[in-house]
């Protein structure tokens, strides 16, 4: 029996000697199958277990395990050393300049519309307005009726509407129906909120008008809110966004849900060659409609018009962005042309 154990030890010495002579990967693989493989010498040696008397089986088994572990770990080390050798050789053959700058990864960025929206929120947040999200799919009642426009009211002609196949359900034409949602949530308490979001109109698309565009509605309700508060808020907003020297023009107007109603224009840079086309020769571009909330709308929202008053406005951030960056075509916003988007 001592023979069988001694043979194992001799096998180990022979195998390690041969391993040292393996110069490349294929020699290493051949060595592995010769010694460690299914039909390798180690397996063969193990086959002799049955010849060994029971009292010596344990010592043989222990020696077998030791030799097996020793050969396996020597093989792993030899493979790792071979890899290292190859890597060094390849680095020497093709030197790598680790000081070269890396390839630039194109960085994404926020859409210019998102950036301007965030600027608008920040300005109104400073004035105590909270952001209130409201739905884009509305019912006729909230988009029109509760805003003082019963069916067949001629003012509905101002908002050419996309209707869904469900009667009375439509894509909102403006953010004003959100006023009703805000009021019903906060009445009878005072509230100051801005309501951003997409609006949809069946319009002729042009350089200034899209069928899908954003609006930011504003609403402030409380005791003694006046037209002076509205004018002050709008002027403070315009000066923060466009700079102290930009001109703000306020004209009287008409909306069924405000009384009195106004429209607000901003002057377009006179040295811009597109000024005439965009402002239809006037030098002014309209950015919002506004007014004092109509008593009927206050009532529909759950307020008592004898106790509180309020102002509301609705602006188009795309038009505002056009003014801020002298963009000459509103269709650029949703085209996803990187040459346009990359400029902001
Ligand atoms: C309204 O939508 C009213 N709801 C605004 C309002 C709110 C008045 C609260 C009173 C009180 P108007 O249709 O004028 O009003 O649209 C408001 C702004 O949205 C416009 O000044 C313009 O900046 C923008 N806008 C309107 N139509 C388009 C369009 N097709 N494409 C891009 N922007 C538009």
Written overview of the protein:
The protein has helices at residues 2-21, 25-35, 41-46, 54-93, 112-126, 140-143, 177-186, 227-242, 275-278, 295-300, 317-325, 338-341, and strands spanning 130-131, 137-139, 169-171, 191-200, 212-222, 248-255, 258-267, 284-293, 309-315. By secondary structure, it is α+β, with helices and mostly antiparallel strands. The protein has a seven-stranded mixed sheet, sandwiched between helices. A two-stranded antiparallel sheet has the order 2-3. Strand 6 (248-255) and strand 7 form a beta hairpin. The N and C termini lie far apart (85 Å). Residues 174, 176, 201, 203, 209-210, 213, 215, 217, 255, 258, 286-291, 312-316, 318-319, 330 line the site of adenosine-5'-[phenylalaninyl-phosphate] (FA5). Adenosine-5'-[phenylalaninyl-phosphate] is lined by residues 174, 176, 201, 203, 209-210, 213, 215, 217, 255, 258, 286-291, 312-316, 318-319, 330.
Can I get a quick summary?
With 344 residues, this protein is α+β, with helices and mostly antiparallel strands. It has helices spanning 2-21, 25-35, 41-46, 54-93, 112-126, 140-143, 177-186, 227-242, 275-278, 295-300, 317-325, 338-341; strands spanning 130-131, 137-139, 169-171, 191-200, 212-222, 248-255, 258-267, 284-293, 309-315. Adenosine-5'-[phenylalaninyl-phosphate] binds next to strand 5, strand 8, strand 9 and helix 11.
